[in-house]
Design a protein that fits this description.
By secondary structure, the chain is an alpha/beta fold. It has one domain. Helix content is 25%, strand content 24%. It is built from 9 helices and 12 strands. The strands form 2 sheets. Strands 1, 2, 3, 4, 7, 8, 9, 10, 11 and 12 form a 10-stranded mixed beta sheet that branches. A two-stranded antiparallel sheet has the order 5-6. The two termini are 35 Å apart.
Length: 302
């Protein structure tokens, strides 16, 4: 049984239990983070080629597979605010997947506002181009199933039912500051896949709970949209935004967050990943790599 088959069977139980992710990387000396300029289809294609091609992640007929994309769609904002994943990045990924022959693509997120507020967001213009793509604003509890986590503080949660049903799960976060957690990147983006986020803020240690969630929900590929980077007054803005026009990607979600954290001055501070409590807690949980000397950043060109 290969890693993909194991994770599928594991997820299908809907009991998302502790799994020491660092064991998955024991055979390699360094985690790898890829960085590419541009945000369109060519950049996405370059990322996938560098990671070994889409065939590395989907072993059956692409026309019979389903792909879940989890962007940050927390608010019905214009992309220029830097608070959400840019529609042009989602478009580039969808165009790439459709071009590869994928027939079923699901974009899903649990938003912070009512679904009706999202009727005219920029992403809708992307959706009409691709009949293969469906948007699910997962704002109803019936879309979630109870799942065990058995983390240090997070013992159970209600996770999106779709997770064990898809063939490829792509976590596509945006790069932004967060007033409560210092940064909102790939690990923080996983909170959009659970129902009860209130308990994270009111009943649990927020940072430890986020780190526990990263043990339970395992994307196949993690991408951070740094086309625009919100440097302060996140997660909702408005705040200072810089145009970076680049993407970062990794199979190691923590290494990815560590690289992006150290690249920008979030909250007007120079941070290492160890300065971010939920990233340090994720490392202590065995989620992935946190230290720069153990992470290889590969800058690639289209």
């Amino acid at each position: 049984m290969n890693r993909r088959q194991f994770l599928k069977r594991y997820a299908a139980t809907l009991a998302l239990n502790f799994f020491p992710f660092n064991l998955l990387f024991a055979a390699t000396s360094k985690s790898v983070v890829w960085e590419v300029l541009g945000t369109g289809e060519d950049s996405i294609n370059t990322l996938f080629s560098s990671m070994g091609g889409i065939e590395k992640f989907i072993i059956r007929d692409l026309s019979k597979t389903s792909v879940l994309i989890k962007p940050n769609l927390c608010l019905p904002h214009n992309a220029r605010m830097g608070t959400i994943t840019s529609p042009e990045v989602v478009d580039g990924l969808c165009r790439f997947l459709v071009g590869m022959g994928v027939k079923k693509i699901i974009i899903a997120d649990h938003t912070l506002q009512s679904s009706k507020d999202f009727r005219s967001i920029e992403l809708m213009e992307v959706l009409v181009r691709y009949p293969e793509v469906n948007l699910i604003l997962a704002n109803e509890q019936g879309l979630y199933n109870q799942a065990e986590v058995n983390g240090k503080v997070l013992k159970t949660t209600e996770a999106l039912k779709l997770l064990p049903q898809v063939d490829l799960f792509i976590n596509m976060a945006t790069a932004k500051h967060h007033s409560a957690t210092k940064v909102s990147l790939a690990i923080k983006n996983l909170m959009g896949l659970i129902w009860n986020r209130t308990e994270f803020h009111t009943q649990l240690d927020l940072n430890l709970a986020i780190a526990d969630l990263a043990l339970a929900i395992r994307p196949d590929i993690n991408i951070i949209d740094a086309s625009r980077v919100l440097l302060n007054r996140g997660p909702t803005g408005p705040g200072p935004v810089i145009n970076e026009n680049r993407l970062f990607a990794s199979l190691d979600i923590l290494a990815l967050d560590a690289v992006v954290t150290s690249r920008y001055k979030f909250g007007n501070k120079t941070l290492s990943a160890r300065d971010v409590p939920h990233l340090l807690a994720a490392y202590q949980n065995g989620v992935g790599e946190i230290d720069a000397q153990n992470i290889q950043v590969k800058t690639i060109s289209t």
